[in-house]
Structures are given as structure tokens and as C-alpha cells.
User: Which sequence fits this backbone?
């Protein structure tokens, strides 16, 4: 399905989500999943190049997904990866590593290949990513990701719930893993219970990426927008009328540096960081060291 997820909109392709695993409602209280073969085969029939976000509605590497389904999905997408970019995103990198290792072992000649050798092989357009909403998750997940051979590896810090230093624990460059992060995505939280994102967290991540030459994609502020000024009076005037049904005390969040965030809604908050959009995309295979 064509998607509005901004970071799938690579300049030369159509953004697409592919959800071959879906819930089956049979009246029982337990959630049941099924593998939809028709959906799985759709990339084989697409004529124009796509950037495909796989299992956007679930986690392919979750504990309820059978190993045979995971292998079948990787097999099917490997056939189409020369035409399409394929993106996998998980919060379980240890399971992702195990699934790909088993898949490599099951394909003659692939077991033990380095990342560089994979690029000209069966999955030259596979991009593997992890979510990391704060420093703890980044510390836990990114080093595991960087040990998995792939044409492109990325981190999605969305929702961004704290400052993340990618260099602190093997982030942008990881000598131990002999690899690099190729892309960083960041964005604020949306929905009824959304928490604000400190603007300095986003700026810090942007600056880290710029210093390391890593593409940075700022997806959105989320529900909370940064006030264009630090004066309380002027900041409150900026938010007047945007959400009149909510008490003003619930709309404002005051950061220690004097910055004020207001709950104005995703559309009003937008995706400008310091007056510009950051919509940078990676090259698959760029900067490969392992």
C-alpha cells in the first residue's frame, strides 16, 4: 500500500508498506496471525521501483512470528531487491540477528559473508534498522544491529523521548562492530498521550550526523511544537486559539533553558527544524567497511 510515511519517500521511488502478516479474527480471545501469500507476492508484480517498509503494522522479528514465515518473507523479498529498496525495522535486534543468520545459513554460499560481500549478492538493497527512543535503547540495540551484514543500517529515534549520543556506545562509528550507521531518523511523539520532545535533543542528533557525514531525516515535531521565542508571554500568544478546548496550563511545557513547547497538534507543529526541512536519504552500500 502506498504510504504517507515520509522517510520511505526516497527521491527515485514510490514509498510503500508491505504487511504480509496480519491478524485473523476468528472470535477467539487470543490474537491469531496469518501469512498472506498474495500480499507477499505483490513486489514481484510492481513495475516501478519502490521503497518498501516491511511489516509496518507489526514486528517481523517479534516472538509470535514463526521462523518459517520469517524465512519465507526474506526469500520472497530477496527476489525483488534488485528493483526495490526493502526496509526492516525492529525493537528486537537480537532476534533480527538470529533470523538473518539462519537465513544466510539456509542459502548456499551466503553463510559467513561480510557486509561488503553481501552488496553484490542476494540482498543489495536490504536496509536494517532499530528503534531507539532514548539513550538506554540506543546503547542496547545499535551495537547489535551493526554486527548484522546489510547494505544499509539505520536507527529510528521516534518518538524521541530523551537525548541520544550516538557516539557514546558505538553509534555512528563502531570499531568493535567494524561498521557504520548509514542513516538516522528522528521525530516527536503523536497521539492523545504524546510527550514533548526537547528541541535541543533533535539539534544534537542533527549535529552529530552532520559531523559524521551521516544522512539525517527529521520526520516531525509530533503533537508538541517548539515556540519560536523563549519569552513566556510571546510564546503563549503563538499558541492562542490552536487548541481552545484544553486549559492553557496543559498545553505548555517549560524546559530548563527557557524554551517553551506547546501542544498544537502534528500538522501545526510541522517538521521544520531551525527553519528548514531535513530530508536526507542514505545510499545503500555507502561507506561499507565490513
Assistant:
Amino acid at each position: 500500500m502506498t504510504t504517507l510515511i515520509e522517510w520511505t519517500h526516497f527521491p527515485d521511488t514510490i514509498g510503500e508498506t508491505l504487511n504480509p502478516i496480519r491478524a485473523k479474527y476468528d472470535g477467539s480471545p487470543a490474537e491469531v496471525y496469518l501469512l498472506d501469500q498474495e500480499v507477499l507476492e505483490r513486489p514481484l508484480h510492481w513495475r516501478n521501483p519502490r521503497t518498501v517498509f516491511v511489516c509496518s503494522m507489526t514486528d517481523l522479528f517479534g516472538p509470535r512470528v514463526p521462523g518459517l514465515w520469517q524465512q519465507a518473507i526474506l526469500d520472497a523479498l530477496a527476489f525483488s531487491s534488485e528493483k526495490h529498496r526493502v526496509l526492516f525495522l525492529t525493537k528486537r535486534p537480537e532476534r533480527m540477528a538470529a533470523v538473518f543468520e539462519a537465513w544466510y545459513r539456509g542459502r548456499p554460499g551466503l553463510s559467513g559473508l561480510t557486509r561488503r560481500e553481501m552488496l553484490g549478492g542476494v540482498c543489495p538493497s536490504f536496509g536494517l534498522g532499530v528503534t531507539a527512543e532514548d539513550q538506554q535503547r540506543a546503547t542496547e540495540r545499535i551495537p547489535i544491529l551493526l554486527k548484522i551484514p546489510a547494505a544499509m543500517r539505520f536507527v529510528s529515534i521516534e518518538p524521541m523521548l530523551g537525548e541520544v549520543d550516538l557516539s557514546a556506545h558505538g553509534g555512528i562509528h563502531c570499531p568493535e562492530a567494524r561498521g557504520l550507521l548509514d542513516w538516522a531518523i528522528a521525530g516527536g511523539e503523536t497521539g492523545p498521550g504524546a510527550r514533548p520532545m526537547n528541541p535541543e535533543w533533535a539539534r544534537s542528533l542533527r549535529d552529530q550526523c552532520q559531523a559524521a557525514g551521516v544522512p539525517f531525516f527529521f520526520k516531525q515535531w509530533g503533537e508538541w511544537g517548539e515556540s519560536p521565542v523563549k519569552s513566556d508571554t510571546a510564546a503563549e500568544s503563538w499558541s492562542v486559539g490552536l487548541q481552545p478546548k484544553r486549559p492553557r496550563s496543559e498545553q505548555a511545557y517549560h524546559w530548563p533553558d527557557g524554551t517553551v513547547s506547546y501542544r498544537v497538534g502534528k500538522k501545526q507543529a510541522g517538521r521544520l527544524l531551525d527553519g528548514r526541512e531535513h530530508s536526507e536519504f542514505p545510499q545503500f552500500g555507502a561507506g561499507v567497511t565490513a
Notes: The two ends are 34 Å apart (CA to CA).
